[in-house]
Amino acid sequence: MKPCLLTLLLALVLVSTGIIQAQQPGDWRKIVEQLAEEEVNEAAIENMYEDLLQLENNPINLNTATREQLENFPLLSMEDADAIFRFLEKNRPVYTLFELRNVPLLDIKTIEMILPFFYVGETDAKAARPQVSDILKNGRHELQSRFDKTLTQRAGYGEFPDSILERYPNRKYRGEDFYTSLRYSFRYRNKVQMGVTAEKDAGEPFFKRDYPKGYDHYGFHLIINDIGCLKTVVLGDYRLSFGQGLVLNNDFMISKSWSTGNIARRTLQPKRHFSTAEDGFFRGTAAVTEFGNFAVTGFYSNKKIDANLSDDGHITSFKVDGLHRTPLEIGKKRNTREQVAGGNINFRKDRLQVGISGVYYQYDRMYNPTLRDYNYHYLRGSSNYNASIDYSYQLPGLIFAGETSFAKNGAVATLNTLQYRFSGNLSFSLLHRHYPISYNAFYAQAFSEGSDVRNERGLYMGTEFRPFPKFSVTAYADFVRFPWLKYGVDAPSNAVDLYFLGTYTFSRQSFLEGRYKYKQKEKNSALPYATHKFRLRYSHNLRSGWNFRTTADMAHYKEKHVPTENGFMLSQNIGYRGKGPLTGDGYLAWFTADTYEARLYSYERNLLNTFYMPSFYGKGCRIAISAKYAIRDNLSFSVKFGHTRYFNRDTIGSGTELIDGKRRSDLFSYLRWTF
Q1: If both were cysteines, with which of 118, 144, 213, 557 could 597 make a disulfide (CB 3.0 to 4.6 Å apart)?
Q2: Is the separation of the CB atoms in 273 and 317 below 8 Å?
Q3: How far apart are CA 402 and CA 525, in angstroms?
């Protein structure tokens, strides 16, 4: 199989390089795909994609764009947003989008990426307040339905005698073997947003006699902007981000490699939570009002969450996967009430910004994780609070930003960044953080190497530069110290994280890139281990709408006193984005990896609004075919089939997800209707 596959991939590359392509504007979707490939949380990427898709369908008028609108735009750094706003202040009205080329330090790649989100309109005074009849008549409705099914039998859906289930009730799922979701949204310009979400994971009961609520999870949100003195009012499910995230951030978090010039965060207005993720959002109300140079945000959340409980009813950990398939999982469903309240006061004048944030959260049970050496300093109680001051100051090409916060127990955490752009071809970033071992902040999500904002000291240095007109480099080095024990590490330890990405652009639609990632950490008894990951990729788009992406990945894992483990993957993606109603992608990969530690990730295009980043180890191949058909301009149907075959194993997965065989097949479908 190897020679045939290599021949096929080589032929596809040679064919694609021999055809001249048209020059078209950059596609922001490819940027999001690149983020997904950096192994970022799928829910965070889906949230980001949802926000961008909504913005694309409701572009911003450059002649009336506010600083806040620009800063809320996910693909713009603080410096980019500031540069665009200052340019518009001096040059309004603008008459074409391409006047953005005159914005100092804004490169062509960024301009092409953001063009779909803006338009040039009139500079009229503030529009009259819309009437309810106008909102209902001119609003935009959207209905999305998704259905997924694994075609290969899994152990949790097998037939078991009653005697076995009486003894082992969690061997069998209580629901059907398919996933389904239904989402409805309504939007009127930038004034009103409303949506409803319903979802059932595979294995969860669906409209069964003992489960009359139908779907396992429901969500709702309503956002209204510009109501009298209130800038924004939110009811239902929403997300928030204050400062650099040391106190609160349940919005998406950018990876280290996303952009070395985009590591500084800022306080954002509340956003809807329209994802099917059942964790990482608030449910209640939030409001934002402005008084001159001050913006004040207040919020309250009250919802039931899943938790793992001890015999005495204490919370030992939170269950965040949202799965309720077996009696054990169903018993943990919404067994704990969580209340969160807080706010932010943000002051801005010219280049200076200062914010004060506070969050208080309480549970109706005691939080008391099973005592271990590594969690000795964890919070133990039913409530906690955090407060902080965040700050930033901008000069042309220079940004200083940071946040200093404290917890109820007095622990103080701080994060500070410095970004400097020498020119349009060279930028440099520096970030230092100090998170004490006793800092407890459940809703913090800030720049870090670990999964929690605690027990970490680090120095990050990143750069982006263009040594030649067609060659760009993104690189960073992150040096980390963990002063206390971690799970699986019985002593203080260190980590080193290095990244290098070099891209040579043959034309605006053809490029070659090489990526290297190195990460060194320690395990028990201070045993160091290191992972090297290499990637070489060639991508080419054709005038006819075809695109080709050929990728070679390699992983090298080395642990002291243990034999080296290696992994290799070769993959080819062929896509079609022509002018007709039918578009699609084909994906083929061959992989071999010695162990799970040498596993390989490869992004394959999935259905709209969803991202799929599987990992592979062992020996096998993967094929995926997807297609989207536009039945009408406002109605489309998408379908995807994926199949994985292993050559060196007789089972896939474990426990209730065990497949007795070498193959796994999955079917995905998606229906979208706008009206």
Answers
A1: 557
A2: no
A3: 35
Specify whether the CB–CB gap between 521 and 495 falls below 8 A.
yes
Q: If you search the block for the tokens 């005691």, which residue do you land on?
A: 366
Distance, CA of 153 to CA of 168 (rounded, Å): 20
Give the C-alpha separation, 327 to 74, whole Å: 40
Residue among 242, 243, 237, 335 at smallest CA distance from 279: 237
What are the backbone dihedrals phi and psi of residue 262, each rounded to the nearest 5 degrees, phi first? -130, 35
Q: Tokens 């190897």 correspond to what residue?
A: 2
pTM exceeds 0.85, yes or no: yes
Length of the chain: 675
φ/ψ of residue 6, rounded to 5: -60, -40
Q: How far is Cα 331 from Cα 14, in angstroms, rounded to an integer? A: 57
* Residue bearing tokens 């596993």: 599
Alpha-carbon gap, residue 298 to 356, rounded angstroms: 12
Distance of alpha carbon 433 from alpha carbon 640, whole angstroms: 43
Tokens found for residue 132:
């309810």
pLDDT in tens, 69-107: 888 888 888 888 888 988 998 999 999 998 998 988 787
Q: What is the pLDDT of residue 4?
A: 41
Which residues face 473 on adjacent strands? 465, 502
- Please name the amino acid found at residue 279: D
Residue 71 CB neighbour total at 10 angstroms? 20
HSE-up (13 A, CA, CB side) for residue 18: 6
Which H/E stretch holds residue 305? strand 294-305
| Phi and psi torsions of 667, nearest 5° | -125, 130
Bridge partner residues of 618 (DSSP): 593
Q: Is the peptide bond before 3 cis (omega within 30 degrees of 0)?
A: no
Cα–Cα distance for residue pair 223/299, rounded to 1 Å: 13
Buried b (16+ CB within 10 A) or exposed e, 93-128: ebeebeebeebebbbeebbbbbbbbbebeeeeeeee
Query: Cα–Cα distance between 35 and 441 in angstroms, integer?
Result: 26
With CA atoms as reference, report the closest residue to 6 among 569, 576, 648: 569
Q: Which phi and psi angles does 56 have, rounded to 5°?
A: -65, -35
Q: How far apart are CA 545 and CA 556, in angstroms?
A: 36
Q: Greatest CA span in the chain, whole angstroms?
A: 78
Residue 420: is it exposed, middle or buried by C-beta count within 10 angstroms (0-12/13-18/19+)? Answer: middle
pLDDT given at position 259: 64
pLDDT digits 0-9 by tens, 116-171: 999 998 876 555 677 788 888 889 999 999 999 999 999 999 999 999 999 999 99
Residue 113 belongs to what H/E stretch? helix 108-114
- Which three-class secondary structure state does DSSP give residue 668? strand
